[in-house]
Each structure stands twice: as C-alpha cells, then as structure tokens.
Design brief:
60% strand; mainly beta; seven-stranded antiparallel sheet; two-stranded antiparallel ribbon
Length: 156
C-alpha cells in the first residue's frame, strides 16, 4: 500500500463569553476555515492526469458559528442557542455539496439545591430538515429532528 496525498488548512477561530447586566449573558464562537488537498493525485486506473489537488476534503465546513443567549435569575436559567454549519462537500471530487444549515435550540435549568439541578432542553426548535453527513451521493444522513431531553445533574 502506497500512501499518497497531503492536506492543509488555514483559518481563524474566535470565542467570547460576556456577562451582561440584568442576569443576561452571551457565549459565542465561530470558525472560518480554508481546508484543501495540497497534493492528491487520483488513482491511476482512471485518468492518469486527474488530480484532486486544491479540492476541499469531504465533510469540512468552510464556516461554523454558535451563539447562546442566557438569562439567570436565582436558581433558574434559560438559554437559547443558534448553531450554524456552512456548506461542505461529500466527496473528494467536490461534486456533491451538502448545504449549510442553521438550527435553534433552547433550554431551562432549575437548581433544586447546590448539588442537584433539573435540565430541560429542546433541540431543533423549529424542526428544520438538515443534512449532517452522507454515505456517497445518494444517501443523506439527516440531523436530529425536534426532540426533547430531560436531565438531572448532581454533584457531591
């Protein structure tokens, strides 16, 4: 087996967390990325002159971002999150594109005491259809539909 190819990425990533007046807070992060194959000749069984050099590796988004607005009042906290994932390619040829998507999540936490909290979350609040991955160009893997989760957190 001969290993071939090389890939690289350049980008910027930033994150911020700010406590605002009145019990509000904001947490945000984002990434802009340029990933590509630096040297990736195609297998020689096909066209020997074919190359994937310069193409974007499969499944790598060009941008991602998340922002959460939270509100705290005593033992209660509410939060809403916006998640963004940019377009991605599903193949090394960059012929099949998975579209970008935005998903909204929300949740509330109630601290029963210092050691116990109840956490209720709603994922994909607007019940959007979106693609998170695929198997080739004909089978798409959809993201989580609107769903609910209840959890208990404890510490001792």
């Amino acid at each position: 087996i001969e290993q071939i190819g090389r890939q690289s990425s350049q980008g910027i990533e930033a994150a911020v967390s700010i406590n605002l007046p009145g019990g509000f807070g904001l947490d945000a992060n984002g990434t802009i990325l340029d990933a590509e194959f630096d040297d990736y000749p195609a297998p020689t069984e096909g066209d020997p002159g074919l190359s994937y050099t310069g193409n974007t590796p499969p499944g790598v988004p060009e941008a991602t971002a998340n922002a959460t607005l939270r509100y705290s009042l005593g033992r209660f906290q509410a939060r809403g999150t916006v998640r963004y994932v940019g377009r991605r390619f599903s193949d090394i040829q960059n012929r099949v594109e998975m579209l970008d998507y935005v998903v909204l999540d929300a949740g509330v936490i109630y601290a029963v005491n210092e050691n116990l909290a109840l956490d209720f979350r709603v994922f994909n609040l607007l019940d959007e259809d979106y693609v998170i991955d695929n198997y080739g160009s004909q089978q798409w893997i959809l993201g989580r539909p609107r769903s609910f989760e209840v959890g208990f957190r404890t510490s001792f």
